[in-house]
Amino acid sequence: MARIRAAFHDPDGSRYGIPTFWWRGAPAGFATRRQLRDAGLRPGGQSVAAQVMWAGIGGVRVAYLYRIDLARPKRVASPRQRQAISRALRARRICPSCRVERPYYIPRSLGECLDCADVSAG
Ligand SMILES: [Zn+2]
Q1: How confident is the model at residue 122, as a pLDDT?
Q2: How far is the CA of 108 from the centre of ligand 1 (A)?
Q3: Residues in the 5 Å CB sphere of ion ligand 1
Q4: Distance (Å, rounded) from C-alpha 51 to C-alpha 45?
Q5: How far apart are alpha carbons 5 and 3 in whole angstroms?
Q6: Please, what is the average pLDDT of the chain?
Q7: If we measure between CA atoms, which residue out of 75, 18, 68, 77 comes closest to residue 43?
Q8: What whole-number percentage of the chain has pLDDT above 70?
Q9: Whether residue 80 has pLDDT greater than 90
Q10: Residue 92, SS3?
Q11: What's the rounded mean pLDDT across residues 25-46?
């Protein structure tokens, strides 16, 4: 195990191009995309800052690490924004001709609900 750790230990990135640590050997301040997400963060446009490598089933595995200090809060719609979104979606189900809210979106091509479109077509 020590040899594997040594093989995957390249904090300067001289061997792998980016700082590389063995699994669980990464210093604080780095997190995987999943760990960021669990913390309510996202990489925020930064590129991969480091990687961890370990010998897993089927060969060497790699997980990419991002810098936590460069991570941004996840974009989460606020209750107000969610309300606005659901209002907008609901508006798309209301027929402009009969003002009835339909269980489907009013087709753009018709400009009104299927019932109204039928009537005007017949
Ligand atoms: Zn209608």
Answers
A1: 52
A2: 13
A3: 95, 97-98, 112-113, 116
A4: 17
A5: 5
A6: 87
A7: 68
A8: 93
A9: no
A10: coil
A11: 89
**Ligand 1 center from residue 82 Cα (angstroms):** 26
DSSP 8-state class, residue 112 = S
Centre of ligand 1 to C-alpha 113, Å, is 4
pLDDT at position 8? 86
> Which residues have CB under 8 Å from 110's CB, separation 6+?
116, 117
Ligand 1 centroid from CA 93, angstroms: 10
Dihedral, 69, 70, 74, 79 alpha carbons, nearest 10 = 70
Q: Which amino acid is at 75?
A: R
Confidence band, pLDDT 50/70/90 cuts, at residue 76 = confident
Indicate the pTM of the whole model.
Answer: 0.57
CA dihedral angle for residue 88, residue 90, residue 95, residue 100, rounded to 10 degrees = -150
